[in-house]
Amino acid sequence: MRTRPLKVALLGCGVVGSEVARIMTTHADDLAARIGAPVELAGVAVRRPSKVREGIDPALVTTDATALVKRGDIDVVVEVIGGIEPARTLITTAFEHGASVVSANKALLAQDGAALHAAAGQHGKDLYYEAAVAGAIPLIRPLRESLAGDKVNRVLGIVNGTTNFILDKMDSTGAGYQEALDEATALGYAEADPTADVEGFDAAAKAAILAGIAFHTRVRLDDVYREGMTEVTAADFRSATEMGCTIKLLAICERARDGASVTARVHPAMIPLSHPLASVRGAYNAVFVESDAAGQLMFYGPGAGGSPTASAVLGDLVAVCRNRLNGTTGPGESAYADLTVSSMGEVVTRYHISLDVADKPGVLAQVATVFAEHGVSIDTVRQQGKDGEASLVVVTHRASDASLTGTVEALRKLDTVRGVASIMRVEGE
Amino acid sequence: MRTRPLKVALLGCGVVGSEVARIMTTHADDLAARIGAPVELAGVAVRRPSKVREGIDPALVTTDATALVKRGDIDVVVEVIGGIEPARTLITTAFEHGASVVSANKALLAQDGAALHAAAGQHGKDLYYEAAVAGAIPLIRPLRESLAGDKVNRVLGIVNGTTNFILDKMDSTGAGYQEALDEATALGYAEADPTADVEGFDAAAKAAILAGIAFHTRVRLDDVYREGMTEVTAADFRSATEMGCTIKLLAICERARDGASVTARVHPAMIPLSHPLASVRGAYNAVFVESDAAGQLMFYGPGAGGSPTASAVLGDLVAVCRNRLNGTTGPGESAYADLTVSSMGEVVTRYHISLDVADKPGVLAQVATVFAEHGVSIDTVRQQGKDGEASLVVVTHRASDASLTGTVEALRKLDTVRGVASIMRVEGE
């Protein structure tokens, strides 16, 4: 084994960073044996240097992250700051100064992955980011390497633990959205400002990353259709139960049936209780992958948290260090397929639509005509009358999102339709 | 991209091999783009050359596998013959003649993995075998690479599709073992001679491979305790149901709580219905991995079949070809931890024991005394009397297998114990 250690600079020492530093110390012998050389924590860039960090030599702590990545003797920079800047500049500076990079930064990778990969490639360095998607669950590596000889057609997953916790709570207790969110906040599963999670921004970033890798095509964050889960109601869950379904916030990356284009989207959806994703509880994540040869695979585990994320970071660190010792790099960006990324209108799926309608004869015929005129075929209809008002629940066959949108616009114009109570996609069948 | 192709020799052209050849042809452009050079099927060694093989140039077919691997211009040998010989000699010959190897051969890897890894290392070549365990499910790569920075404590999995199909059928229909086996055979899930599957030999080979990788320790096939599932009865399933459990044939690789030793075993076991492995249906496989930092991960998918296995083989092929172009090799055997592999007696778990006893006062006291004398603490007891006979179902707390064995021997000597109807371990709690 080489005795000269590989030097690691840690950018950020919060929940994830402190766990990375801890494991680097406690598991130093194992890491050295697995890499073939010891790894040494050479510096830790933080915002608040005065904070006591147990187990970290205060002499390593600096507030000057730029100087740290510019030192020139750093082998690997571990970036766990998050956000776009200064992370982006620090990562490119690291490449320029000879370091490879391990990052957990989904927002940055989703927004600027192509440029960062280009910078890594230009300098012959590695950029690894298993921790950016679904925490500890090995997902990037299986998609990028294990399935490298296969053709992935769909990635369907629960990639945000906060929203899964909230939806699971609503499902199991009948609580409304706000009540379940309050509990998630109290238990530390949701942040004080939960926007990134509940509005689907976090999941959309992960969907962009997953779609890019799965389809060997650049998928920008803007390409991902995004709909949060704040409008999901207890009534929606009752409807889902009647259909033998539950509701999950899903990230769905799909190849069109003709193979020529792909889509990526994040939205709440009903899925059958028999689907493996339906039983993913609490803050867990799970991702279903469908490919030509392998068929259906599922990857399940904790999607967030300091330790799980640190596990993913350290797995990447070992790989990057091994590559460095071998004088090589791992697989970089693979975007050769360059497929068209279609908009949401092209997505084809099924829909569950609840309408508030007048309780009088002929309404169903009117509604059914609107569906037919827009080429949306109806699977089932259920009518419930109450006090002169009635609700009509329509479940469609597969139709394009554009056709469904046209249908709903036309429905809203009918005198007999008082309102569209909810529209929910039905997936995983 | 390099234009000179990498040459692949395929040993075996059965269900898996023909699928590997087919995908190499139909996905040639994708494979070339992902590898960075085209791959060419340079030869196919078969036993029956006269058989028509659609899509394979007859000029490539040979019965002389040895001459094929000795050609000297082969970059990668794909071995999908199975069995010990001639596969072992062909693989070592391939290394000697400059080729790297992708194998799907669990029996060979479990028996001679160390020697094969040594041969690969000696010649600076790769030995990859993702397809040897759990078909298409990425498992070797996640354990060996994604979790390289973590400490794996347990691998608990359903790694044999045939037995899972049979047990699932028994569970869902109340059928007995023979009836369920007959159905599995009729549907092609079980071979004419099902011994390797139902007696746990296949799962034991996979357990040895998984334990070796998970614990960075050589685990020989002989180190794996093995108990088949032919004795599992419909009555066992009724008992399991009463406990809120089902029965699965599990491969379990565990680190002892003191961290100094490991065990590997294959046997039927009760697991709670709430455990994710309980809902693995039909011929699917799933493996649960528990580690210090990542927590609980699960990997699920088709565990066998031509296409899924070919997917795993081709993923390895892409990786090995990339390594070759980069003039490097991937991670080899990692056995540095060299932990003690303990025997079954050291395994600590819970037990479900059904006894046929005389229906008279004092029997429970006698039985309970035997458990106490052997240091096995009882969790619950259920007595059922019928026609002068009674059954006693005891569920224990955690105890060593050695203590349990001693207890059962002593129970058999009691006059009041007519027989030990079944002993089943309880896992996954």
Quick take:
The structure is a homodimer of 429-residue chains. By secondary structure, chain A is of the alpha/beta class.
Description:
The structure is a homodimer of 429-residue chains. Chain A is an alpha/beta fold. Chain A folds into three domains: 6-136 and 306-325, NAD(P)-binding Rossmann-like Domain (Rossmann fold); 140-302, 2-Layer Sandwich (Dihydrodipicolinate Reductase, domain 2), CATH 3.30.360.10; 347-426, 2-Layer Sandwich (Alpha-Beta Plaits), CATH 3.30.70. Chain A contains 14 helices and 18 strands. In chain A, strands 7, 8, 9, 10, 11, 12, 13, 14, 15, 16, 17 and 18 form a twelve-stranded mixed β-sheet that branches. In chain A, strands 3-2-1-4-5-6 form a six-stranded parallel β-sheet, with helices on both faces. In chain A, strand 15 and strand 16 form a beta hairpin. The first copy, chain A, is elongated, with a radius of gyration of 24 Å. In chain A, 53% of the residues are buried. Chains A and B meet through helix 2, helix 6, strand 12 and helix 12 of A and helix 2, helix 6, strand 12 and helix 12 of B. Strand 12 of chain A pairs antiparallel with strand 12 of chain B. Chains A, B: Its cofactor is a metal cation. Chains A, B: Keywords: Amino-acid biosynthesis, Metal-binding, Methionine biosynthesis, NAD, NADP, Oxidoreductase, Sodium, Threonine biosynthesis. Chains A, B: GO terms for molecular function: homoserine dehydrogenase activity; metal ion binding; NADP binding.
